[in-house]
Amino acid sequence: MSRIAAVFVALFMSASPSYAEDVQPVKYAGPYVPSPQSVVADMLRYAEVGPNDFLIDLGSGDGRIVRTAAKVFGARGFGVEIKEDLVRQANEAARQEGIGEQARFYKQDLFKTDLSQASVVTMYLLPDTVNLLKDKLLAELRPGTRIVSHDYPLTGWTPEKDRVFDLEEKVAISGVKTTILWLYIVPAKVEGHWGVQLPPAVSKRAGTLELKQQITSVHGWLRFDGQETPLEAVKLRGDRLSFRLAGRQGDFEGRVKGDAIEGTVRIGRASAPWRAKLGR
Ligand SMILES: C[S@@+](CC[C@H](N)C(=O)[O-])C[C@H]1O[C@@H](n2cnc3c(N)ncnc32)[C@H](O)[C@@H]1O
Given the CA of residue 57, which atom of ligand 1 is nearest to it? Predict the structure, then answer.
């Protein structure tokens, strides 16, 4: 366990008696240790939060992340928190700041919270909790949803970007100045066997696209005209999929909409549409 995690866990142990009186969550996800206000602003900027966003903070403490998202970035959202006094404090602060409609707080177990409304999820939780949430995040969030985790990564999920910096205020929280922000983008689900209509310049007959997926990492091949061609440079960012065909011309890009992909193939200066439908 890293030093940051060890100090965080130690804080949790010292915080546990008061929590025990409060609730019985599926799992206690971490003590109340607020993110420094400068980190809150950094997290929101990192996720490019704006007026069209709906943000959910998992374990919202005094509500500072959702309140800042509403006050400074014009977003709406809610926080869930198991400690009743913190929920009350957060709702009262939001009311006094005139953002009671945009920023709401509920006494609720984060593991039982419906996340489907979010376009941004934020969290500052124990390292193992962050990872216990991985399947839930992937199952409930729409492709393209941004997730910012303060200090602890989602293991096995390649971040869109991460940023490491020193902050004096963190010494009191985690024993070291080091602060890390991890930004993830929820990928569309593309694994499977797709029937493909290619532009005539590539093939006049239907093909098949076979995709294997490990979160954001995708590989596969396209079969057409009796040949199987591996995909190269495959990228999946939210609902945007792009790839090339090994040894052939053509840059494919497409948008995944449930069980369909629609996009264009660019060959030299020309571009033509292609589409795929997920097989049963
Ligand atoms: C480290 S604090 C983060 C507070 C706030 N998000 C921030 O960054 O300033 C984690 C919070 O999660 C809350 N918490 C722990 N387990 C929880 C659970 N199962 N459901 C909801 N909240 C939980 C704790 O009470 C604590 O306030």
Answer: 6
